[in-house]
Amino acid sequence: MRSFDLIVAGGGIAGCSAALAAARRGKSVALLEKSVWPGGLATAGLIYVYLPICDGCGRQVSFGLARELLTAAHAYGPGEIPERWQAPGPKPLNDRLYTIFSPASMVLALDELLEEAGVSVWFDTLLAGVRRTGGRVTAVEVENKSGRLTLEADYFIDATGDADLVRRAGGECFSEENQLSSWAIEYDATAQRSPRNLADHLKQVVINRTVPEGRFRGISGESVSRMIRESRRELRNRYRKLYAEGRTRDDCFPLLVPTLANFRRTFSIRGRLLLTPELSGEQFDDSVGLFGNWITPGPVHELPYRVLLPAELENVWAAGRCISVTGETCELTRVIPVAAMSGEIAGTAAALAADAGSSAPGVAGGRLQEELRRVGFRFHREEL
Has this prediction a pTM greater than 0.85? Predict the structure, then answer.
């Protein structure tokens, strides 16, 4: 049996950020990832658009690892921050503090950061079970080539995107709707470099289609498999149509398809606060970060600490797209920058809780905000 200060389940952007935040504060951290890629949907899902960390009017609103990872994404590949993002006034997406990046470049950059921080990374490792005593999770069971193993920790972060750890621990969760969605990288001999294309001839292909309610909930093995099969069927249909119109298999073909299902939402935790669209413009005493509206320039929202806290569990946080958010607000929080921010918040809180021997709710308030402010965070709109 192996023991750690913190176990992070899920190696997407949120999980990597959580692991980095805790490990950089001297904690022993195990990061569990079911695939062999760090980065989750940003890399294995081929969703290689790092959406803005600004308000769309020339002001940065998200800081810390949200900014660090935006820069790191370019370390081994193309991508740049638009020079015009700081100009005053509303701007379109391509003029904001955002970038596109090579998914493989992000993988290499995340590997490097995790190694430098001393995180124990467990790739090809599936979360198979959770042990709970009272209101505390005590261990997780995992499966990999070594068989079934038990890993213990004092604290846990659910960054699976699907609330897998919290659900297996018996925590309350809820599910939301999805679209049929798939991102792919295409070779197109006629395509030139653009704000969305990685390079000449490398083209982003995005398939989004509304579907009957409940068809792609992503909350069962059957629905996940159906989503994957039908999204790839849509790609096949695309190429049949293109070839029938005169394109050839030599000048236009799929180069990469995602190895992770492109779900927007599946399960989310029922937190100590549920952030609804009606609350999204409010100010919160326990705000631990700010995020912009990537769809519409201007609005800035506060992220309350309580949305990271599962209602029934004392030593667990959620991070990434499974935090306690619902409705249209999900569109703003499920993306890369907010995943990085919520992961950093959770990892920082876990490190503080380990230092003090306290619960996850016990580090709310001044101690956590002070530590986050030290790395540049802002908590209220008037601080920008």
Answer: yes
